[in-house]
What does this fold into?
Amino acid sequence: MILVLAGTKDSREVIAKLKQNGSSIIASVTTEYGANLLSDLDIIVKQEKLDDAKMKQLLRDYEVDTIIDVTHPFAVTISKTALEVSAKSNIKYIRFERGSIESREHELLIKVNSYQEAARKAKEFEKILLTIGSKNLDYFTAEIEDWQQRLLARVLPNWKFIKRVQELGFSPQNLIAMQGPFSKQLNQVLLEDYEIDLLVTKASGKTGGVDTKLEAALELDIPVLLITRPELDYNNLVKNYQELLQEVKRGEH
It folds into this structure.
C-alpha cells in the first residue's frame, strides 16, 4: 500500500499514474478542499492533520510500505514528520516535486526569506499583486500604508479563503478570486489591466504556477518579489512521473 501525502495540483496526476501502475493507494489531505479534489479517484482519502503518532498509526492500519510526499514545498512540518517516521519504520520515502525555473537569477527578481521581509520590500512599490494564498496577507496589510489602494490579492474562490481576506479588510476592488492554473498570457492580462508595479509570490515550484508568473512579469519588465522556501533535505527526490514510477518499482523488490 502506498500513502500519498497530497497537497498540490500534482497530487491527482501522481495518484492517477500510480493507479495505472496497479498500485493500491491511500491519500492524506488536511482540508475539505483537498479532499474534494480527490473525491472522484476511487481511492481511500483521509482528511486530518498527521502528527508523528497519527502517521505511525495510519501506516500500521493500512500496512503502508511506501510514502510519496506531494505536499506543498512550504509544508515542511508534514514533510519532516514523513521523513522521520519513514526512517524509523523502515518505510520507503519518495518526494515528488517537478523542476522549476524559480532558482534563476534576474535583475528584476528579488529573493527574500520571510513574509516580514517581503512586506518591508513591497512597500517601496505602489501597486502590488499578492499571489501567496490567504494565510499571510496580514504581514502586508500591517506594513503598508493605505494598503486598500495599493494591494491586490489573488486567492482561491473558496468561501473559507474569501471570508479570511474579508475579515482582514479586503474588499472586491482589491480581491481576485480565481482557480488556476494560470497561463503566462492570463497572468500578463491581469498584471497589465491592474497596472501592477510588483508581483509577490512564493517559491512553490512549477505546480504552484511560479514559472508562468515569473515569465509573465519579467517579460513585462515588472519586478517579482520571491519568498524562498524553507531548506529541507529530501533524501529521495524525483522530478517527473517516469522517475517516480521507477522509484516505486525499485521499492517492490
About this structure: The first strand starts at residue 2 and ends at 5. The mean pLDDT is 90. The two ends are 14 Å apart (CA to CA).
